[in-house]
Amino acid sequence: MNLDFKKPLIEHSNELKQIPQKNSFKGCEFSVSNMILWADYYQMEYAYIDGIYLFKQTMENGSIRLSYPIGGETEEMEHHLFELELEYFTEIGQEPCFGLIDSLMFERINRWYPERFSIQYERNWADYIYSREKLAVLAGKKLHGKRNHIKRFMERYPEWCYEPLSKDNMDDCVTMAENWCRINCCKEDDEKEEESHLVVRALHNFEQLNMKGGLLRTRDGVIAFTLGSPITSDTFDVSFEKAYGEIQGAYAMINQQFVIHELQNYKYVNREEDIGIEGLRKAKLSYYPEILLEKGLVTERI
Asked: Who contacts 211 (Cβ-Cβ below 8 Å, separation ≥6)?
């Protein structure tokens, strides 16, 4: 059987939106909105075979990385699709290479093919996954600083309000995102500029992409917003979060208010990786993740 890959597009949303119901892996790359929005930047494609999804990434040097099969009702089904992936590598004349593999995926691969493959984890790819309840309540000494940031925000902006993202306030978020980009010099950072375009695209298409969002408003307008979509039935991915850095507590406040108002039906919140940025790593660790989901590259042992 040939693997027929295609680029994920917004018009494929109905086909792809089955993934959160079928998927049991919590990596942020399995958020449907991420698949579609970042497809061009990361040269991602997908195939849908026998109810299971496979993903392909084409690297700058032309080499291919495939994903672990997603959505199998049994391990036997996943194993069968993995065999097809191995055949695909043989057909294209490349040694097998599987990207963004977590420890549970690798455990299964190693069980199917004992000692045939090895994994090299990349810390910068690790996802920070938090308890939704802990993000909402912020209880305990460790999160005392977060509660203080929120208290100061509420004291300084007593007129603040939270709003769920809707067609009525979406344009206000677009305006805030574009202003945030100007303030933070996106034009000087290719990845930051690309993300700014994707934020606007996500906002304009949030309903079709099955995304939820929320915003904070003061008398000065929208000062923070966040946006994401489900990964699994119990895990939600926060894809984008913007706040004006000069407003103390804005990030902590939008983080808390969003999980309180929009994520009641989820157990976990994936706030994605830190991509090796020291300040971002420090900020994500300061919320004390429930799971640090490490992912790596799987290749055959030499």
From this structure: 33, 165, 202, 227, 228, 229, 239
Residue 2 lies in a domain: no
Per-residue tokens: 104: 């549970």
Q: What is the pTM of this model?
A: 0.95
Amino acid making up residue 135: L
Split into its structural domains, the chain has a count of: 2
Contact residues for 235 (Cβ-Cβ < 8 A; gap 6+): 26, 129, 266, 267, 268, 269, 270
Residue 91 shares a structural domain with residue 148: no
Residue 23, domain member (yes or no)? yes
Angle between helices 144-156 and 250-262 (to 10 degrees): 100
- Whether residue 57 sits in one domain with residue 139: no
Q: For 66-80, write each residue's pLDDT tens digit.
A: 999 999 889 999 999
Q: In sequence order, what E strands does the chain have?
A: 44-49, 52-58, 64-66, 97-102, 117-121, 127-131, 161-164, 212-218, 221-230, 235-243, 268-270, 291-293, 295-300
- CATH no. for residue 22? 3.40.630.30
- Which residues span the domain enclosing 98? 10-126+295-300
Helical packing angle, 75-92 and 103-112, nearest 10°: 80
Burial of 184 (0-12, 13-18, 19+ CB in 10 A): middle
- Whether 4 is in a domain gets the answer no
What would the pLDDT profile of 231-257 be if each residue is shown by its tens digit? 999 999 999 999 999 999 999 999 999
Q: Is 1 contained in some domain? A: no
Quote the tokens at residue 248. Answer: 């103390």
* The total number of residues written for the chain in this structure: 302
152 and 267 part of one domain: yes
